[in-house]
Amino acid sequence: MVLIKEYRVVLPCSVEEYQVGQLFSVAEASKNETGGGEGIEVLKNEPYEKDGEKGQYTHKIYHLKSKVPGFVKMLAPEGSLVFHEKAWNAYPYCRTIVTNEYMKDNFFIKIETWHKPDVGTQENVHKLDRPTWQDVTVVPIDIADRSVSSADYKPDEDPAIFKSVKTGRGPLGPNWKVLICYLHICSSSFTYTRHIPADVIEHIFLLKH
Question: Transmembrane ranges (predicted)?
Answer without folding.
Answer: none
